[in-house]
Design goal:
The structure holds two protein chains of two kinds. In chain A, helix 11 packs parallel to helix 12. By secondary structure, chain A is α+β, with helices and mostly antiparallel strands. Chain A is globular and about 90 Å long. In chain A, strand 9 and strand 10 form a beta hairpin. Chain A folds into three domains: 159 residues, Aldehyde oxidase/xanthine dehydrogenase, molybdopterin binding domain (Aldehyde Oxidoreductase, domain 4), CATH 3.30.365; 181 residues, Aldehyde oxidase/xanthine dehydrogenase, a/b hammerhead (Aldehyde Oxidoreductase, domain 3), CATH 3.90.1170.50; 302 residues, Aldehyde Oxidoreductase, domain 4. The two termini of chain A are 42 Å apart. In chain A, the strands form six sheets. In chain A, strands 3-5-1-12-9-10-11 form a seven-stranded mixed β-sheet, sandwiched between helices. A six-stranded mixed β-sheet of chain A has the order 7-15-14-13-8-27. In chain A, strands 16-24-25-26 form a four-stranded mixed β-sheet, with helices on both faces. Chain B folds into two domains: 76 residues, Ubiquitin-like (UB roll) (Roll); 68 residues, DNA polymerase, domain 1, CATH 1.10.150. Chain B is 32% helix and 16% strand. Chain B is built from five helices and five strands, in the order ββαβββαααα. Chain B has a five-stranded mixed β-sheet with strand order 2-1-5-3-4, with helices on both faces. In chain B, a hairpin with a 2-residue loop joins strand 3 and strand 4. In chain B, helix 2 crosses helix 5. The longest helix of chain B has 14 residues. Classes of the chains: A alpha+beta, B alpha+beta. Chains A and B meet through helix 2 and helix 20 of A and helix 2, helix 3, helix 4 and helix 5 of B.
Chain lengths: 779, 158
């Protein structure tokens, strides 16, 4: 989950600061425009391990004597747990520990968010969704553990449930949490409800704006709940020693955050728990939250043995972080000349049974692409009996963009204006006040739209039953706490230790940045992800921060190391430090009388290190402010089968601002991957709940993500509008690519089918029904 | 329950193991033989991350029992490279940036090699259908298809 702190909102919007010719070691401002290493496409350091099967993911780690841990989950959407009898399970031969919530006493000290995490990891008195953990066992093997689960007897009192976003906000809906009173409403409500919070954003006077409009577009849109769908299920090995120290090997996007939460829940000191992140088999936000890791630790503590836990796919779907389902009302006022006079939206987002900030993020991002005089958004966090929502790549922005960009498209069509020209006319630019508050610095929405306008894709002919759509998207990006080490080896090669998990090739990108700063070849630099015992706290790889923030920290660390290298060279030459400069991987002597001194290479200085003061290293610990905001424009062609309603994407183009693409192949990969996930979301993926509140499709067979034969090639165009707040101009690139697809495809399907699509996913039955009802209405 | 004694061939080597009747071939490879290249993404044959060859047939090892390996020949991703020389598909996957997280990659490589052995000159559509049993959530498949195209061309000597 992206953590939006006040400073992360303000910084991206600062105007471009003046560049300096000689930056201080920790000067974050853009200072480099010409690159030797950055922008090339070298091979990734973890490539061979990953194509040969050597790379170790979460489930690939084992410890001697480890037990198998399994979780018993609620079959009910909503039920009071009256009693749990574990006696028979505990007596089964081979069972070494059985735990319930009683084994995880509340150490949260009034921290509501932490208590919700604890309650979600193991239900305390109420099971709040189908799949909610209620007990766990550790046994000598999987067969014994499975047998033990069957021997646990749970007495439930089934309670009324609600899973639908619109049903949950009705006055007579079953209450998910009787202690929930809507936050953000004045005066505070007297009665509890399923709305956890109301947030509002905007400026101007929308009523006046609507009055000034020639045309009003008003519609309600819906999106269904999806899952991140990482191929690697959650997995960990936990080992707690009798001395109270512990180790956790786990697939995660943030091992420092996992350590912090697990230690708090287990009542341990942070320093006594060491967490190592494995290779990660996809996360997309879903591995920014702990699920069964505290249970593995608690089982290990009770059994005094290491415990390995691996979720099944069924458990991943039923009990780990899906997105919100949403229902969004949009109103747009437009003049015939193409000016948007006002925009408003009310966004209802499911949170699962616990309070989150999902509608708030939707409300912030909804109109962020546009320069609006009058805008207002209201976000409503809706509690339902579904799994606790976790971040999914630019969390909450795709659903909001679907609603807004559909309305924008319809508005352009209504006034007879080209949809790209209409957006260009209203696009935000440097100096615009964003719909969520801050004023933008240099941004890429206008350039991505102009690139779309000029793209050959926009002019390509369409066949029968085909339609074209386009849409824009925005994401904040995030910086955050980052701590990195740079160590120069005795042979002059360099090892980087970073605390941001590599989810998509960041080790290659970070090595490129250090090679650039030090002036040495890429293959002299090796980047490793260090465990929590090795570095200071690092925030998670979320908010597209991994490469942005760790490259900033490592550039600072490299500058610190260069200062040491220069001092050592001065010592070797016996000249004043101020007569040494660093250039192209060498110390150069300058000034009178030093001209004949041959430059000293990094390798030569490293070789002399034992005699000049010992090891040479650089270090940086920072809060990486100034993550530049990100914009994209997507173009999509579809063909809709009028007989079946099935939609096929025939061509897809992504245009996005990267600030500076450090490793362009992996930037393209982020663009393509986000687009593909968006295509799955737009056309097919959805959680289907039965009337009993149980998830009906928790398998990859029935929750079908796009396969290779479903997709076309995905063309990409990288724009580079430097981020003024990063030494190399880097912006995060990971998330924005999932924001426009829902809307771009909906606009394309609407054009192909001749009827406005307002419900995601646009599965064949839904498209067919829309076409049929449009025919009946004679539309 | 008494274990079953199985004699089989894995990546060309004679291997013996004892497994329980309900253990899958994937369980045996990962938990008894230390071959963790094949991954369990679903356990229901839907994701292809556990793909191996059993007697030259592309197989989800999560859908086969360990005991069924008796007398057969099993090939996994660990057997793809010859010594330090990578299979062209392995090398070109790295060169084309055809992996991000890499967890689907072992299965995709096994499936791609099976495809190219049957059809050395596949069209883009044939590649897409040949890999349709292997889910990848990171790449959008674009760079995977291009890597397989490049490997097909190189392996044909074209």
């Amino acid at each position: 989950m992206v953590t939006l702190k006040d400073n992360s909102l303000a910084n991206p919007t600062e105007a471009a600061p003046p560049t300096t010719s000689e930056p201080g070691p920790h000067e974050p401002l853009l200072s480099k425009h010409h690159f030797k290493s950055v922008g090339t496409r070298p091979l990734r350091p973890d490539g061979i391990d990953k194509v040969t099967g050597r790379a170790k993911y979460g489930a690939d780690h084992n410890l001697p004597g480890q037990l198998v841990g399994l979780v018993l989950r609620s079959p009910h959407a909503h039920a009071r747990i009256k009693a749990i009898d574990t006696t028979r399970a505990a007596r089964l031969a081979g069972v070494k520990a059985v735990i319930t919530a009683a084994d995880l006493p509340d150490h949260t000290g009034g921290d509501e968010g932490l208590f919700d995490i604890l309650d979600n990891c193991i239900a305390r008195d109420v099971a709040r969704y189908d799949g909610h953990a209620v007990a766990a066992v550790a046994a000598v093997d999987a067969a014994t553990a499975r047998a033990a689960l069957k021997l646990i007897k749970v007495s439930y009192e089934v309670l009324p449930h609600v899973t639908d976003v619109d049903e949950a906000v009705k006055a007579n809906a079953p209450l998910i949490n009787p202690k929930n009173f809507t936050r953000g409403v004045e005066p505070a409500p007297a009665r509890p409800s399923n709305i956890a919070k109301r947030s509002t954003f905007g400026h101007g006077n929308v009523e006046a704006g609507f009055k000034a409009a020639d045309v009003i577009i008003a519609r309600t849109y819906r999106t269904e709940q999806t899952h991140q769908g990482y191929i690697e299920p959650h997995a960990c090995v936990a080992s707690i020693s009798p001395d109270g120290t512990g180790e956790l090997w786990v697939c995660t996007q943030g091992h420092f955050a996992y350590r912090q939460w697990c230690a708090a829940i287990l009542g341990m000191d942070v320093a006594k728990l060491r967490v190592t992140s494995s290779e990660i088999g996809g996360g997309f936000g879903g591995k920014t939250h702990i699920w069964m890791e505290p249970l593995a630790l608690a089982l290990s503590r009770k059994a005094n043995r290491p415990v390995k836990m691996v979720m099944s796919r069924d458990e991943v779907f039923r009990a780990s972080g899906p997105t919100s389902a949403t229902s969004i009302d949009v109103k747009l006022g437009v003049k015939k000349d193409g000016t948007i006079t006002a925009g408003s939206a009310t966004l209802r987002y499911t949170n699962g049974p616990y309070f989150g900030m999902w509608a708030e993020l939707g409300a912030m991002t909804a109109f962020a692409c546009y320069d609006l005089e009058n805008v207002e958004t209201i976000g409503l966090e809706v509690l339902v009996n579904r799994p606790k929502v976790a971040a999914y790549r630019a969390p909450s922005a795709p659903e909001a963009a679907f609603a807004i960009e559909s309305a924008v498209d319809e508005a352009a069509k209504t006034i007879g204006m080209d949809p790209v020209a209409f957006r260009i006319r209203n696009a935000a630019r440097e100096g615009s006040r964003s719909s969520y508050g801050p004023v933008y610095g240099p941004i890429g929405i206008g350039p991505t739209l102009k690139a779309a306008q000029n793209h050959p894709h926009m002019k390509a002919p369409l066949g029968p039953n085909q339609g074209r759509g386009m849409a824009c998207g925005f994401w904040f990006n995030f910086g955050g706490q980052t701590c990195s080490d740079l160590n120069i080896g005795v042979d002059g090669t360099v090892t980087l230790s970073v605390g941001t998990v590599d989810v998509g090739g960041s080790r290659a990108s970070l090595a490129l940045c250090v090679a650039e700063e030090l002036g040495i070849p890429y293959d002299h630099v090796r980047c490793v992800v260090a465990d929590t015992g090795t570095l200071g706290h690092n925030d998670m790889t979320d908010g597209s921060r991994g490469t942005f923030s760790s490259s900033m920290a490592l550039i600072f660390a490299a500058r610190n190391a260069i200062n040491v290298l220069k001092a050592r060279a001065a010592q070797m030459w016996e000249i004043p430090l101020e007569n040494v400069v660093w250039k192209d991987g060498h110390a150069h002597a300058t000034g009178d009388g030093h001209g004949n001194l041959a430059p000293l290479s990094l390798k030569e200085i490293a070789a002399s290190a034992p005699n000049t003061g010992g090891p040479i290293a650089g270090h940086a610990e920072i809060t990486a402010d100034g993550a530049g905001v990100s914009f994209a424009t997507h173009i999509c062609d579809v063909e809709v089968d009028p007989e079946t309603g099935r939609t096929r994407v025939t061509r897809y183009t992504v245009i996005q601002d990267a600030g500076k693409a450090v490793h362009p192949a992996y930037v393209e990969g982020q663009y393509q991957g986000g687009a593909a996930q968006g295509i799955g979301w737009a056309l097919n993926e959805e959680y289907v709940y039965g009337r009993d509140g149980r998830l009906q499709n928790p398998t990859f067979l029935d929750y079908r993500i796009p396969v290779c034969s479903d997709l076309p090639m995905i063309d990409t165009q990288i724009l580079e509008i430097p981020n003024p707040n990063h030494p190399y101009g880097v912006r995060g690139v990971g998330e924005t690519s999932i924001v426009p697809p829902l809307a771009a495809i909906a606009n394309a399907v609407s054009n192909a089918a001749g009827v406005r699509m307002t419900h995601i996913p646009m599965s064949p039955p839904r498209v067919l029904a829309a076409m049929t009802s449009a025919d009946k209405l004679g539309v | 329950m008494a274990g079953i004694h199985v004699k089989t061939t894995i990546n060309g080597d004679a291997v013996e193991f004892i497994c329980q009747p309900e253990e899958t071939l994937l369980d045996v490879l990962r938990n008894r033989l230390g071959l963790t290249g094949a991954k369990e993404g679903c356990g229901t044959g839907d994701c292809g991350a556990c793909s191996v060859m059993v007697d030259d047939r592309l197989t989800c090892s999560c859908l086969v029992l360990g005991a069924e390996a008796e007398g057969r020949s099993v090939e996994t991703v660990e057997g793809m490279a010859r010594g330090s020389e990578l299979h062209p598909l392995q090398r070109l996957f790295i060169e084309h940036a055809a992996l991000q997280c890499g967890v689907c990659t072992p299965g995709v490589l096994i499936a791609a090699r099976a495809l190219l052995e049957k059809n050395p000159n596949p069209s883009e559509e044939e590649i897409r259908f040949g890999l349709a049993g292997n889910l990848c959530r990171c790449t959008g498949y674009d760079k995977i298809v291009r890597a397989v195209q490049a490997a097909a061309q190189e392996m044909r000597g074209a």
